[in-house]
Amino acid sequence: MNPVRIEFIRQKMSEMRREDGLDDVNPTRPLDGLDVLDVGCGGGLLCETLARLGGRTLGIDASSSNIAIASLHASADPGLSSPQKTKGSLTYEHTSVEDLLAQRGSKSFDVVCSMEVIEHVDNPATFLTNCATLVKPGGHLFLSTIARTPLSYALTIFAAEQVLRLVTPGTHTHSKYINPDELTDFFLRLDSDAPAQDAVPKQSAAPRPWISRLYGGVPSRTEAEIRGIIYLPWKGEWMLVPRGAPGASIWAEACNYMFWVRRPFK
Amino acid sequence: MATTTPQESDVVIVGGGPAGLALACALASAPAIQDSLRVVLVEAADLNKVRNWNEGPSTFSNRVSSITNASQSFLGEIGAWAHVDEGRTCPIEEMQVWDGVSDARVTFSMQDDHASILSAEPETQLARLTENLNLQRGLLRYLDKNGTVELADKVKVQSIVREEREGGGWPLVHLSDGRVLRARLLVGADGFNSPVRAYSGIQSYGWAYETSAIVATLVHNPRTSFQAPNTVAYQRFLPTGPIAFLPLSPTASSMVWSTKPHLAKALLSSDPAVLTAMINAAFRLPEVSLRYLHQRILDSASGGKPLSPEQLHEEIAWRERSHHIDSRSAYSLAADTGGVPPEDADSLPPLVTSMQPGTAASFPLKLSHADEYIGDGAGARTVLVGDAAHTIHPLAGQGLNMGIGDVESLFRCIHKSVLNGGDVGSRTALLPYARERYFENHKILAACDKLHKLYASTAEPVVWARSVGLEVLNELDSVKAAIMLNAGSRRSRKSLSGTQLGVNFGADAVETIARNLSGVSTLTKGVAGMVGDGLQKVL
Hints:
Oligomer: heterodimer
Number of strands of chain B: 19
Radius of gyration of chain A: 18 Å
Pfam family, one (chain A): Methyltransf_23
Protein name (chain A): Methyltransferase type 11 domain-containing protein
CATH class of the largest domain in chain B: Alpha Beta
Mean pLDDT of chain B: 86
GO molecular function, one term (chain A): 3-demethylubiquinol 3-O-methyltransferase activity
CATH topology of the largest domain in chain B: FAD/NAD(P)-binding domain
InterPro entries (chain A): SAM-dependent_MTases_sf, UbiG_MeTrfase
Order of helices and strands of chain A: HEHEHHEHEHEHHEEEEHE
Keywords (chain A): Methyltransferase, S-adenosyl-L-methionine, Transferase, Ubiquinone biosynthesis
């Protein structure tokens, strides 16, 4: 699934950098010079890729064994471990988002990613707020997760866990899954200067929220975007559903999807 | 050895043959790869020999390959084809294939109606015949000009060992010049006895054909102005193996004659004039007489009294008379090649007058296919292309094209992986290559193998069935078009950027229909389909 995530991150980053008037973006290094954070990095698959794309990457995970595995894997790769190269860099830290926020302060990263994590945390609103607070103004937050639908139950829990045993049974809890409109809704109400403590900030006369308004239920593509990811069994690979595919919210975003949102500059 | 610090390399290509060089060219052609990957090509031989290869305009190297339009367009796309001396290559505009026992014949031509089914743009050639050295020299010239690939020639791979490291080490390639390369991705383009394949632990299966291929550059008179130019390839399937005539210039052509090893040995040890006459006879005389002549050659070789050219000519003349072959017919070796040609002259290659000295040689034929193309576990970070992955019977001239097809697919994988920040040595990055190529190559290998076996038979019912199949096939334009498509006669339209998506889609749809047609024909026409399915590769 990693290539598909990267495809989305690449597309979106290139698009937004063009939007900001940066025309000379190197196509092989769309993250050049950016501070990138991957929350819940696991074995470091995404982190290594982000570093190769030019990002000064930090991977954090709550499990120390994951960090050990990821560090070991990266140490074999001279493109990631040698310090003198001009490419991005990669470091790992065994910590949580809360601790990192306390340590680094808010607005520390240009790009914050968290792939397939939010459906496992107990308090997604706090988790989201913490991740969002770490994003610099004008920075990006990428998430991937699973929607709470009958289809996702059938595929990710019934098929993957109970029948095919591809995933250890009990890995997922259907009630913890989050729907795309719930994420949109959260960022519609999240002020760009929201205090980290308040999970659901109230709408005061404060600066504008991350998503200003919806157009026919969809945010503007410069503020946020949702794209479904579907598995093509005949090709044996995952595919990023093209933007504006007809009825995508019904079939494509009913299971795995990617979510991107950008923090307003002010 | 442990004292040498390994040099970090992203792609190490072992083998400087056509496949290895083509991959190096492809990697050098993409700016994204230039920026991010260090590519090293290791070759044991002296590449200067290829670089400075210079043959006179009328003489030709004996190792030639037919480059399909698909292969040629890929080489053009990466910019390497421009460095191949096109004056030394020859288009094949028509192909005639016939049964050595029954004379059933099939003709493929780009001039025919069925060719128009292939594409809207006019394509005049089915393939292009190129000396391997000409192609390799062109690729090298391209690499010399676009100097991002490090060429390490006259350097042998002494050993490949796995780095000791927790969590899986990378391959360490020890070279004869004392250097050690640490490879992110190790590409085996090192031929049939591939050291990279041995390191990767990939098994390969296959068998020897008990057949040797005799190659030689043939000299003949030019075609008369009443005839089509020398751009027609001919192949006759004899029970001992097919003999192919491949045009190179108006007065020179190449030959690949697959036959029994002991016969090949006897033929090569006989007088060149005897071999020349035997080549002419092999395209013309009925099978029963050929069998007799083969026996004569074998007997005289083992008896220590080699057959003289005069004796052989007399023998052939006698045989022709008994078969009622008119001495003015194209089927007679005595036919006069000047003036108005006989009616049937176009169904046979021109009479060979001599062989270019020093070009006659032979090599054994075998089939092999690696079980996998990507190394796993202890052999991780390895990938096989070209002859390291598969060797094939040359009857369809697909060996080199399969290698180039591998290179094209692997190059796209690497390119995509680099753009997506992937690790080009990882299994994830390489998997699409194996998926795209394994079945494709297997299909071609299997088809050529079956074809070889089908035509080795002289049993009456088999000959009848395959002949009827061939004759039926010759009348089915759409099936012929499908076969030509599969044989790579159409330029590939896959573009890197993915623009012209609509055009691609249209072209793919046509191809899919054509493929299905060919599939359906295989099912419904039994032997006919089988012959056809294999014949598609006769380019």
